[in-house]
Amino acid sequence: MSWLTLLASVAVVPAGTNFECTPTHVWDGDGPVWCEEGPRLRLSGIATRESDGTCRSNQPCPDASAEDAKRALVALLGRPVGTSRHGHTLIEGPAMRCLSVGGGGGNRTAAGCVSPLGGDIGCAMVASGKALRWDRYWLNHSCGTRGG
Hints:
It is a single chain. This protein is an alpha+beta fold. It has a single domain, classed as CATH 2.40.50.90. It has helices spanning 3-8, 66-77, 121-128, 135-138; strands at 18-21, 23-26, 33-35, 40-43, 46-47, 79-83, 89-92, 96-103, 108-115, 119-120, 132-133. It is globular.
């Protein structure tokens, strides 16, 4: 099975579902984060720069660089152990508790997650200044209570 076929077969976790995610790959500061259990996460309610350093016109644009945001996310989730041939940072970290808010574009699940290392990941990224709160998707998020 090709990499693209495998990626296309990943299902979105239904909204309102609690699930576990053991992170294995990180693309940029707000995801996707690949989970050993299958889902690909887009962290809900935050925005970081794209991996090429740009910001999309319809979302908040933080001052922090894309690389700084990605490093901050990796540190909250675990530790870097390499780079995939596609450019993802490979990581090792403990399982997180996540709560799906539905589709995050394509085959990604938008979710809020709590890690044993970094606590509420969205809140930690905003507090670090590496991400901005994206009110359109922040919903009723209250730092410290998300992720099941």
